Amino acid sequence: RALGAIRDGAFEKVVVARSCTVSRPGGFDAGRMLAALRAAHPACFRFARASGRSTFLGATPERLLRLEGRRVVASALAGSAPRGRTPGLDERLGAALRESKKEQQEHAVVVRALRAALAPCCGEIEAPESPLLLRLDGIQHLHTPLEARLRGDEEASLLDLAARLHPSPAVAGAPREAALAWLRRHEGLDRGWYAGAVGWMRPDGDGELAVALRTALLAGDDAVLHAGAGVVEGSTPEGELAETSLKLRAGLSALLEI
User: Is the bond leading into 167 cis (omega within 30 degrees of zero)?
Assistant: First the structure.
């Protein structure tokens, strides 16, 4: 259905998500799961947030935004491939990811949107000409870091900037409102805190936020995991399903460690 909407011109990209529920009597130990995530994903943002009897935790590779004084740092993360079991295969998979027109298109949509969101309040935005590879445990992504400075007369806090950037095409789609409207009609699940923002902020407005990906919500006997995949022209249902399965492994592996 998403591909049909893209062909009809409704939007350029939409990110569809699915959930997976794992259950066992007595539930899961949040502390032990967080420890497993910390050990397995040292390059990611690791977090846990308790609310009542529920705990939302994860290990996300994606920075939404960092504000230090007038320095603004953001990240575009879109386009994924598995890791290889040997160095040679790993290099080939990474090269194929960087050369894929479909993955390049998916990534470029995010970069353009972040640039457009920051341009009204920032000066020159610096970014590499082509995406880098971010290699993680079991998965690798196309990654473009962006850095800018607030204009001299601009006063903006972390949350002011986050409102401009979020939800980005990496978790919603582009154009944003058309993609969100389609997701409300068709996605068929409640994302809850998944794909939101998690982080910290100082009283002066500085701080850092990450996109809540590779997450699990522990409540009662259940652990509910989510994963999403960006659909653009050239996507296939089989390919996007495989990508979500790859992304679910982070949480599933941590649960199995328990």
Answer: yes
Amino acid at 190: D
Instruction: Kindly report, residue by residue over 189-245, the tens digit of the pLDDT.
Output: 999 999 999 999 999 889 999 999 999 999 999 999 999 999 999 999 999 999 999
Answer yes or no: 13 catalytic: yes
* 158 in Cβ contact with 67 (< 8 Å): yes
Amino acid at 249: R
Task: Kindly name the residue from 12, 62, 106, 240 that is annotated as catalytic.
Answer: 62
Residue-wise burial string across 87-111, b where 16 or more C-beta atoms lie within 10 A, e elsewhere: eeebeebbeebbebeebbbbbbbbb
Closest of 114, 191, 109 to residue 147, by C-alpha: 114
Q: What is the pTM of this model?
A: 0.89
Catalytic residue among 12, 13, 208, 247: 13
CA distances from 220 to 46, 52, 133, 238 (A): 22, 11, 38, 33
Contacts of 215 (CB under 8 A, 6+ apart): 56, 57, 58, 60, 193, 194, 225, 226, 251
Rounded CA-CA distance 108/68 in Å is 26
Q: Is 224 helix (H, G, I), strand (E, B) or coil?
A: strand
